[in-house]
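During the reporting period the student researcher (J.K.) took over the structure-prediction task from the postdoctoral fellow and processed the backlog of single-chain submissions. One of the processed entries is reproduced below for the supervisory committee.
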Amino acid sequence: MNETQQAQADLAFMKALVEEGGRSRMTGGAIFLAAGLLYGLQCLVHWTQMAGITRFSDRFMLLFVVGITVAFVVALAVVIWRDRKTTHRAVGTRALNAVFMGAGLANLVLCSVFGLVSWQTGSQTIWLLYPVTTCVLLG
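J.K. obtained the following structure tokens:
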């Protein structure tokens, strides 16, 4: 392969990376929008309780938190179901998906470790580190 053919092959590869379209970004954006809205609502409700504006029972708050997560899982399933026929074969999309899968797995492990330590020590202080580590992973 001469230099011209190699340059053309390199350009074709770079073009494939860039031209994969906005569909994969739309899918990720929809997922982050759903997460931001739902978990933002959850944070707002928790803030109102901490500020003394509202007072909810522990049972209600447990159901509320579980409900927010269930709503997010449903939103996630809808976005994935809607996008199931769109195949993203580009290298950039596969790499980005791998990064977020790794971050999600690391997030699951952190949740398990923080939960175990919190349960063993009887202190909720460890959970204050969890949002920071999630931001670091997704950043």
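The committee noted the following: The chain is about 80% helix and 0% strand.
J.K. will present the remaining backlog at the next meeting.
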